[in-house]
């Protein structure tokens, strides 16, 4: 499929595949900034980069932000996340109405490393042992607002490692997918997470068990990038993470995301 030349029939096929599989890969694309933005609109209203990331957006295109370790002439990074590992997360799930689709387009890649992993949270929930599932039914989990997935403290926030007092938002542990209504596990990120209503000790033990279950190989896809790949995923039904890569090599990705269509609801 050529995403720079997209028909109504293609749109129906792609949306159907997206809601069935939660993540899609389009290879050998050659996309202008406008192509990337207009394809992203298929999945919802395209969001602008958050205010603290706007300086890492493509100049004149606040909807496209740069994920890169490359430094500009002023010696400052032109993008976010550097070359380190990005831990498992769903994008910006600390918001009340978190974004839905993320689209990531590979412009420049290191010779090794930087693979992006996706884990399916509908399958993880389906495969969850009953005793574990019962422990989270009807419960909410706090999604941390202190750190991003690269471990950097978010702008305007005090560093904190106390799940009870750190900034964050509670979302149901099992959500109804906003488009399909299918139940999905919604974990966000492990750091500073907290299962509401439990002691910190019980919450930590339950979260460890949930994360060990949800990120098993059986639910994961590891993507080895090629230039021109566009990989996209649904943040309401998947988690993703990225492997580190050698900081001496360059990696440049362009990313868009769509706004949430509503606050996450319990299944
Ligand atoms: C991200 O976590 O949004 C970035 C993933 C990547 O750089 O592959």
Account of the 3D structure:
- The chain has 267 residues and is of the alpha+beta class.
- The chain has a single domain (8-152, 162-257), classed as Clavaminate synthase-like (Double-stranded beta-helix, 4-Layer Sandwich).
- The chain has helices spanning 8-21, 33-40, 121-126, 130-136, 200-214; strands at residues 23-26, 57-58, 61-68, 80-81, 86-89, 101-108, 116-120, 140-144, 168-172, 174-176, 183-185, 194-195, 220-223, 230-234, 238-242, 252-257, 265-266.
- The radius of gyration is 18 Å and the shape is globular.
- The site of succinic acid (SIN) has 9 residues, from strand 15.
The dominant shape is globular
**Overall pLDDT level:** 95
The assigned CATH architecture is 4-Layer Sandwich
Structural domain count: 1
Described by strand count, sense and barrel closure, the largest sheet is:
7 strands, mixed
CATH topology: Double-stranded beta-helix
**Alpha carbon gyration radius:** 18 Å
- Low-confidence stretches are none
Q: In terms of topology, how is this protein built?
A:
Blueprint: H1 8-21, E1 23-26, H2 33-40, E2 57-58, E3 61-68, E4 80-81, E5 86-89, E6 101-108, E7 116-120, H3 121-126, H4 130-136, E8 140-144, E9 168-172, E10 174-176, E11 183-185, E12 194-195, H5 200-214, E13 220-223, E14 230-234, E15 238-242, E16 252-257, E17 265-266
This protein binds succinic acid (SIN).
Succinic acid binds next to strand 15.
């Amino acid at each position: 499929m050529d995403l720079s030349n997209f028909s109504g029939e293609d749109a129906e096929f792609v949306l159907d595949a997206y809601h069935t599989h939660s993540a899609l890969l389009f290879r050998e694309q050659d996309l202008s900034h406008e192509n990337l933005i207009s394809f992203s609109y298929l999945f919802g209203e395209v969001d602008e980069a958050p205010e603290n990331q706007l300086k890492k957006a493509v100049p004149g295109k606040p909807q496209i932000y740069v994920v890169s370790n490359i430094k500009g002439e002023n010696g400052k990074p032109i993008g976010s996340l550097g070359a380190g590992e990005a831990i498992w997360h769903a994008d910006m799930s600390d918001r009340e109405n978190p974004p839905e689709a993320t689209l990531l387009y590979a412009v420049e890649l290191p010779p090794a490393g930087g693979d992006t992993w996706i884990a399916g949270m509908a399958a993880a929930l389906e495969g969850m042992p009953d005793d574990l599932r019962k422990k989270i039914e009807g419960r909410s989990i706090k999604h941390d607002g202190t750190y991003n997935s690269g471990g950097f403290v978010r702008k305007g926030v005090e560093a904190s490692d106390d799940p009870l007092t750190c900034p964050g938002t509670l979302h149901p542990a099992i959500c109804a997918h906003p488009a399909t209504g299918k139940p999905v596990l919604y974990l966000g990120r492990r750091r500073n997470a907290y299962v509401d209503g439990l002691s910190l000790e019980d919450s930590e033990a339950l979260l460890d068990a949930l994360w060990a279950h949800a990120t098993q190989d059986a639910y994961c896809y590891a993507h080895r990038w090629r230039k021109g790949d566009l990989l996209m995923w649904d943040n309401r039904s998947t988690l993703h993470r990225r492997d580190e890569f050698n900081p001496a090599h360059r990696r440049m990705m362009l990313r868009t995301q769509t706004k949430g269509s509503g606050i996450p609801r319990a299944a």
